[in-house]
Amino acid sequence: MHRPDTLMEPEEVAAAFDELATQGKVRHFGVSNHNPMQIKLLQKTVKQPLEANQLQFGLMHTGMIDEGLYVNRKETQASERDGEILEFSRLKNMTIQAWSPYQASSVKEVFINNDRFPELNQKLAELAEKYHTTPNGLASAWVLRHPANMQIIAGTMNSKRIEEIAQASEIQLSRKDWYQLYLSAGNGLP
Ligand SMILES: NC(=O)c1ccc[n+]([C@@H]2O[C@H](COP(=O)([O-])OP(=O)(O)OC[C@H]3O[C@@H](n4cnc5c(N)ncnc54)[C@H](OP(=O)(O)O)[C@@H]3O)[C@@H](O)[C@H]2O)c1
């Protein structure tokens, strides 16, 4: 179910999901851009487990990680915008599906091989060589390395890029390299 709707009535959703399940039209149910309380509200009446939540996540859109790293601090990164959705998803075994993983959130453009992000691209190039992959593969491996066991939703229609992205499932970034990439994307650590 795409994006929260403040006029949503859980009983109505439950009836629709039951119909879809009974008809065999949908076998797995999920939501997109929902926070933990919205999921709990739905799950009060919806009997099918909500298995996935699509959320924007990638090297340049890291809010759900930032808030966890800045707990109890005054910096803006400490702002709870997503209701600790990362930890909630792990607790409930809900799969986060990372959408627009190659987009810079502030400017809505792909950051890979983009001159506007020199530090990140330098690190991507350096580590791509180390891990025998490409910047695309590495940016994907960065998402997949998180123990929340996320899935990537890539929008590209380019078969070479799709191949590079798929190969990322074979790459295991070290913790140090993972954090170096996080920092080179303009993030800080407390
Ligand atoms: N649930 C939600 O709220 C939500 C919101 C937005 C999107 N989505 C889903 O997420 C999917 C991905 O979103 P997206 O298309 O915005 O994200 P994306 O995979 O980060 O971006 C893909 C776009 O960037 C282009 N691109 C250029 N250089 C690229 C590179 N080096 N690597 C990868 N892509 C490059 C691709 O064009 P080429 O084809 O030329 O490679 C494609 O147009 C969508 O298909 C959609 O289904 C869900």
Bound molecules: NADP nicotinamide-adenine-dinucleotide phosphate
How helix-rich are the residues, as a percent range?
A: 40-55%
Oligomeric state as shown: single chain
What CATH calls the topology of the largest domain is TIM Barrel
**Largest sheet features:** 4 strands, parallel
Give the tally of β-strands. 6
SSE string, helices as H and strands as E: HEHEHHEEEHHEHH
The CATH architecture category of the largest domain equals Alpha-Beta Barrel
Radius of gyration: 18 Å
The count of helical stretches stands at 8
Mean pLDDT over the residues: 96
Number of domains: 2
Structure class: alpha/beta
Spell out the key features of this protein.
binds NADP nicotinamide-adenine-dinucleotide phosphate, four-stranded parallel sheet, TIM Barrel, single chain, 12% strand, alpha/beta, 190 residues
Structural write-up:
With 190 residues, the chain is α/β, with parallel strands linked by helices. It has two domains: 1-48, no CATH class; 51-184, TIM Barrel (Alpha-Beta Barrel), CATH 3.20.20. It is 41% helix and 12% strand. It is built from eight helices and six strands, in the order H-E-H-E-H-H-E-E-E-H-H-E-H-H. It has a four-stranded parallel sheet, with helices on one face. A two-stranded antiparallel ribbon has the order 4-5. Helix 2 (36-43) links the parallel strand 1 (29-32) and strand 2. The longest helix is centred in the N-terminal third of the chain and has 13 residues, at 10-22. The chain is globular and about 50 Å long. The chain binds NADP nicotinamide-adenine-dinucleotide phosphate. Residues 32-33, 54, 99-103, 110, 112, 136, 153-158, 161 line the site of NADP nicotinamide-adenine-dinucleotide phosphate.
